[in-house]
Amino acid sequence: MAGVEGAGVRRRSVLRAMAVIPALANIRNATAQNFLPPQDLRPFIDKLTGGAVVKTGKVTMDMPAIAENGNSIPFILRVASPMTAADHVKSVHVFAPRNPRPLVAAFHFGPHAPRAEVSTRVRLAGTQKVIAIAAMADGSFWSGETPIVVTAAACLDEALG
Amino acid sequence: MTARLRVPDTARPGDIVEVRLLIQHDMETGFRRDMQGRAVPMNVITEVRARYGESEVFRAELGSGVSANPYLAFPVRALKTGEIRIEWVDSAGVRGGVSAVLNVA
Fold it and tell me: Which domain range does residue A113 map to?
C-alpha cells in the first residue's frame, strides 16, 4: 500500500511540474513581445558615415543607470570639442538599438555653438546600450555608448505596420 | 500647441547661457491604440530650429524615441541683445513657434 501511495504522489508532482511548462512558455512570449531584440545598427551607421571609420571617444551621455519607466528618461549628451571654426561638432545622432525606430534624435551644432551639449528626455524600449555618433568638421566620426537598465519599456504593446 | 521658452533675463557679452524649451506635444509613436482599438497614427515633432538674431544656433531632428512634451536645453553664447526664436514642425505639418529676448549688457 505504502509503495502505491508513494507512486501516486510522485505522479501528481510530475503532472504539476508539466502544467508549469506551458505557463513558462507564455511568460517568455510576453517578454519577447514587449522587449524587442537589439537591431543591427550597421546599416544606420553606414548611411551616416558613408563607411568611414568611427573612433571611440569624445562622446558622453548622462542617463540614470536604472529607469523604472522607459517613457521619459533624462538624457544629457556632450561631445568634447573646442567648437572653433576649424574644429567643431557638426551633428550627433543618437541610436537606441532596441527601440522599434532606433534613431532617437539627431542634433546639429556649428562653430557658433559654445559647447556641443544638449539635454532632453528619451523613450527607451527596454534595457540596452544607447549609442551616439558625432560627426566632426574635419570629417572624422566619434562614438560613445551608455548602458541603461529599463524595468518597464516605453509603450509598444504591438508593432503596427 | 503651447510651449515654454526660458532664457536668462540678462547676460554679459561672451557668457554661455542655457536656452530651455518645453513644447506641449503628444509625440504619438504610431504604436498605440485608442479606446476603440483603432491605431493612433504617428505624429511627432520632426524638427526644431533655434535662431539667435540672424543665425541658426541649434537644430534637432526628433523621432518617436523622444518623450511626449519634448524638452530641449542647449547652450548659446550671448553676443548682443537679440531675439531667440524657436520654430518646429510635426508629422502632420503643423508648425509652431515661440521666442524670447536675450538682453546682453
Answer: 42-152
Q: Count of CB atoms within 10 A of residue B63's CB?
A: 23
Q: What is the 3-state secondary structure (H, E, C) of A79-111?
A: ECCCCCCCCCEEEEEEECCCCCCCEEEEEECCC
Q: Mind telling me how many Å the CA of B95 is from chain A's nearest CA? A: 19
What ipTM was assigned to the predicted interfaces of this complex?
0.94
Provide the 3-class DSSP secondary structure of residue A124: coil
Give, in degrees to the nearest 5, the angle at Cα A78 between A64 and A82.
Answer: 160
Strands (E), chain A: 54-56, 59-62, 66-69, 73-79, 89-95, 103-108, 116-122, 128-136, 141-152
Shared-domain flag, residues A116 and A46: yes
Across the interface, do A121 and B62 touch by the CB < 8 Å criterion?
no
Q: How many CB pairs under 8 A join A and B?
A: 102
- pLDDT tens per residue across span B11-47: 999 999 999 999 999 999 998 888 998 999 999 999 9
Are A30 and A55 in the same domain? no
Q: To which residue does cell 544629457 refer?
A: A76
The architecture in CATH of the region B3-104 reads Sandwich (2.60)
